[in-house]
Amino acid sequence: MSNLDPQAALSVCGGRGFVVAEPVRELLSPRRVQLGESTVVRRLLPNLGRRMVGAWAFVDHYGPDDIADESGMQVPPHPHMGLQTVSWLHEGEVLHRDSTGSLVTIGPRELGLMTSGRAISHSEESPKPHARFLHGAQLWVALPDGDRHVEPRFQHHTDLPTVTAPGLTATVILGSLDGAASPGTTYTPLVGADLALAQGTTTSLPLDPDFEYAVLSMSGEAHVDGVPVLPGSMLYLGCGRTELPVRAESDAGLMLLGGEPFEEEIVMWWNFVGRTNEEIAQARADWTTGSRFGEVKGYDGPPLQAPELPAVALKPRGRVR
To answer: What's the pLDDT at 11?
Structure first.
């Protein structure tokens, strides 16, 4: 998924110095962003209060949207570098095309994992015909310096491991949770899990005290460590936790995101994750001139144009603003 903001801002984030080293309860509100022709997303990361959770650097939540009489998601070809994109759906389908030749339809609770590495381009659209409702999340994972120039690839996993307890089914999207490990490739210690909770469920999830965590609410009403978290909001939890109490006031869907605090400071602008302003500017130039990022074949429409770079010097601001 692309960041379609025409006024894309440069941000520097990462580094352990700004990590909350103890449990907290910091509720993050979303910013609404138009994506493509008809999709409005709720952007939780980067946020005015926080830029990263582990290596998770970008989180959009969208839907549920009734697209029965609409085109649905239509995101033209656009570039990525230095990151992984994670596509996760609760309802609907997304047709993924990329410059490595991938052509895959991603369905509910299937992992679409694209590792951009040094350079890739892709498009995303609702297939024709498509389901009535579209509801999901799009997330980015920053790649560490030693792996950010790997060859691009796309992985589609339809059979993911689950952890169950009375009233809870946790699907492990990336990393591992309570002994269950996702087949998706990761480059830093992290976890992503989808939590389906039945109304009235009270349970506790095992956590790694060295990880920092956040919980994104997808649907329903749940209390996370005593804090009500409503759909489209995210609760940042800090580090130092060994378990996380959760209570469902209704049938609810949550996403647990966590990982070791990201060591490196990164520069994130538009659809690129790099380390310097010069590197980002070169990536923009390469996309504009049609080099390096390859070609997405089969999409009916032109690729996205890159926004103008801001004429400002980069100033490290750490993981929080």
So the answer is: 52
* pTM higher than the cut 0.90: yes
Dihedral over Cα of 251, 206, 51, 18: its sign? positive
Q: Examine residue 48 and state whether it is found in any structural domain, yes or no.
A: yes
Q: Look up the CATH number of the domain holding residue 43.
A: 2.60.120.10
Q: Both tokens of residue 35? A: 């994506």
Annotated binding residue at 122? yes
User: Is residue 295, in this structure, part of any structural domain at all?
Assistant: no
Quick one: which of 217, 271, 255, 211 has its CA closest to 237? 211
Domain enclosing residue 157, as ranges? 11-259
Indicate whether 19 belongs to any domain.
yes
Q: At 282, which helix (H) or strand (E)?
A: helix 277-289
Whether 61 has a binding-site annotation, put simply, is no
DSSP state of 53: B
Task: Provide CB contacts within 8 A for 87, sequence distance 6+.
Answer: 1, 94, 96, 106, 111, 112, 113, 114, 124, 136, 138
Please count the residues of the chain. 321
In terms of Cα–Cα distance, which of 207, 192, 198 is closest to 166? 198
Residue 200, both tokens: 């009235």
The pLDDT tens digits of the residues spanning 108-149 come to 999 999 999 999 999 999 999 999 999 999 999 999 999 999
Q: Is 135 annotated as a binding residue?
A: no
**Is 35 part of a structural domain of the chain?**
yes
Give the strands of the sheet with 103-106, arranged side by side: 74-80, 120-125, 94-98, 103-106
Q: Which amino acid is at 16?
A: R
Domain count, the chain: 1
